[in-house]
Specification:
The protein is an all-beta fold. The chain has a single domain (10-127), classed as Elongation Factor Tu (Ef-tu), domain 3, CATH 2.40.30. 3% of the residues lie in helices and 45% in strands. Strands 1, 2, 3, 6, 7, 8, 9 and 10 form an eight-stranded antiparallel beta sheet that branches. It starts with 8 loop residues before the first strand and ends in a 21-residue tail after the last strand.
């Protein structure tokens, strides 16, 4: 059951694999450190503007930025780029985002309680809430202006 009008994160599962030792931490549930929701960039390219309204595609990585409360069972370095990161984030409205083998980027520091993570992935999967793509029961008939 989902609450379609409720905004917020319901569950966050993080798994870390140490790049040096292959030690695995998780999956472990986490909580957001602030009221700020995670921010996602799923498109695998950026459009650089060119003259006359054209754009040039530049490849980039899908990314996630999230601020979580650190779990003390996990070394801080795992949050800061020394591990492969897998994540699943479920929202109250039924949206679910999941990604595997991401790597922390950026140089965010931590107060050892909260950790801001910027993670680059090859691909981020998005699962839409049930019924999102279903057609409406009463479709609206388009109207077109007719030239006289």
């Amino acid at each position: 059951m989902t609450c379609t009008n409720q905004v917020g994160v319901k569950n966050i599962l993080l798994t870390f694999r140490d790049c040096d030792t292959d030690a695995v931490y998780g999956p472990i549930a986490h909580k957001l450190a602030t009221e700020d929701l995670p921010t996602w960039r799923l498109c695998p390219y950026n459009n650089d503007p060119l003259p006359h309204g054209y754009v040039k595609r530049q490849p980039t990585n899908p990314e996630l930025e999230i601020n979580v409360i650190r779990d003390l069972r996990i070394p801080l370095a795992m949050y800061q780029g020394c591990s492969d990161v897998s994540i699943q984030v479920e929202y109250y409205n039924g949206l679910v985002y999941s990604a595997v083998q991401g790597t922390g980027t950026g140089d965010d520091k931590s107060d050892t309680h909260e950790v801001t993570m910027t993670i680059s992935f090859r691909e981020i999967d998005e699962m839409l809430p049930n019924g999102t793509l279903e057609s409406t029961p009463n479709p609206i008939t388009p109207t077109f202006a007719v030239a006289a």
